[in-house]
Amino acid sequence: MVDTRSASSGAVASDKTIGFTTPSGLTADNPSLVLNVTVVSPTDAGYLNAYPGSQSSPGTSISDFAAGSTTATDTIVNTANANDYLIGNESGSANNIIIVATGYFD
């Protein structure tokens, strides 16, 4: 779905988000989306959060990471009847992030 290592937007800046839309074939009526989210070789420690674009940041972490440690995690994001989602990079540096949808709940 998203790989900032090869995207024109590049790495996600410190304390910023990257947005993505519902994968093809799914709709906002699907209540939850299962994601694998990976931060690649971060230069500073931090955490990622995930949430529907129609809501504010939940202030909770889906993945904590250490500097230099590529870290992957699976998470479930409630769609909240939205077609867009945000992954937040809460760290002291820009980081590359990979987002893959692995499933959904009807």
- CATH-scheme architecture: Sandwich
Whole-angstrom Rg: 13 Å
Show unreliable segments: none
How are the strands of the largest sheet arranged? 1-8-3-6
Q: Would you give the CATH topology?
A: Jelly Rolls
Structural class: mainly beta
Strand tally is 8
**Helical content (DSSP H or I, runs of 4+):** under 10%
Q: Give the SSE order as H and E letters.
A: EEEEEEEE
Nearest-integer average pLDDT = 87
Largest sheet: 4 strands, antiparallel
Distance between the termini: 20 Å
Name of the CATH class: Mainly Beta
List the total number of helices. Answer: 0
Counted up, domains total 1
Strand content: over 45%
Shape descriptor: globular
Please provide a brief summary of the model.
The protein is mostly beta strands and 106 residues long.
Q: How would you characterize this protein structure?
A:
- The protein is globular.
- It has no helices and eight strands.
- With 106 residues, the chain is mainly β.
- It has one domain: Jelly Rolls (Sandwich), CATH 2.60.120.
- The model has no long low-confidence stretch (mean pLDDT 87).
- Helix content is 0%, strand content 50%.
Attribute tags:
106 residues; mainly beta; four-stranded antiparallel β-sheet; globular; Jelly Rolls
